[in-house]
Amino acid sequence: MQQLRKMDRIQIAQINKYNVIRCLMREGPINRAAIAKRAGLSIPTVMFITEGLLKSGFIRSIGKGVSSGGKPPEMLEIVPERFFYIGLDIGRTMIRAAAVDAVSRQVACLREPTDNPVPERKFVDRIAAIILKIAAQLKTENDRILGAGIAMPGLIEKETGAVLFSPDFGWNNIPLQEWLAAKIPFPVIVENANRALALNEVFLMGGETSHTTFAVNLGYGIGAALVIGEDLYTGASGTSGEIGHITAASQGPICHCGNRGCLEAVASGAAIAAQGKAILESRRPSVLGDLAGGDPGKVDAALVFRASDMGDREAARIVNKAAEYIGIGLSMAINVLDPDRLVLCGGLMRNSPSFLEKITASIEAHRMRQAGRAVIISAGTGGEYSTANGACRVLSNSLWWNRKLPV
Ligand SMILES: [Zn+2]
Prior knowledge:
Elements: H1 2-27, E1 30-31, H2 32-39, H3 43-55, E2 59-64, E3 74-78, E4 84-90, E5 94-101, E6 106-113, H4 120-137, E7 145-152, E8 155-157, E9 162-166, E10 171-174, H5 176-181, E11 188-192, H6 193-205, E12 212-218, E13 222-228, E14 231-233, H7 263-267, H8 269-281, H9 287-291, H10 301-309, H11 313-337, E15 341-345, H12 347-351, H13 354-366, E16 376-379, H14 386-401
Parallel strand pairs: 4-7, 7-11, 12-15, 15-16
Antiparallel strand pairs: 1-3, 2-3, 4-5, 5-6, 8-9, 9-10, 12-13, 13-14
Helix pairs in contact: 1-2, 2-3, 6-14, 8-10, 8-11, 10-11, 11-13
Zinc ion (ZN) is lined by residues 245, 255, 257, 259, 262, 264-265.
């Protein structure tokens, strides 16, 4: 019992501190009384916590603010350059890296094509080199870089950061976190890419923490993550969110996961590109063929979208069909989960503004009448580096809750 009480006290202190930092992060510069009000804490508690944060150099005073009657209050803010996080988004076509500062502002980024992800050890050497490259861009001491978060498509073992299965990469049981940790001078954590993306999109939406958000990543593959408040729902064995591998067309093409007709096999970026290539191989004249200069090797999803917008009827059929399938998949998610918000993100969403409308129309056509009627459907706002920024959030959350954040 005594043990339990001590544990409770530590946890409550940790949660109080988290809430104070959250206020400073979202509303800084801010004074102590305003923090107390927002965080629902007493002023002495806020004074105690901010004293510790000032001592550790995590926050600083920027002088007096405007008085609301009494003496002008001291304004506090987080010191942005106090430390940095690195995040990598290991996509099947592009690797994107970002570094963010202590107030979650992106301060560096780079990207390079993924190329061949095997042999795995050689590929992991490349990932390590990219981490060191972006660390060098920060021009700061290594001890200010708190680590690297790695967002990877596929099923990740939570305890070890091993990639259990990544259909996109053709990887099975690769100890990614362990291999990287041996090559870089900071802590490293591996998480599923859709979850990293979802955390960042929820952070960007700010506001209420009581919302349930279902975030979908439409890119080379298709995946999703459920965020309840600000916490990820990971499932009993950690594999939740694999909406790309629900069966969309039971007689459809074989998916790279091994099953037939998965949503990802008929509507992902890879599937759209494959269907576009087939148009060229049929040798019929087409806008897509002209755009690709007759070379099927030059056809990717972005080009199919472009051809569709330019009036290529075959390309438009591919895009519309993909939107229809995605809408069917998401209507299932809405019927089952009844979320507050459905956020559509990923490379496919950046190809055409009308894709969101098409998917929304399909959702409306397929979801059960009256089901999920509170859901707000929107496009993600984090842009190209949203997943990489999310990987930074995965790392900062992990360091925080394991009490390894130096604050
Ligand atoms: Zn599949």
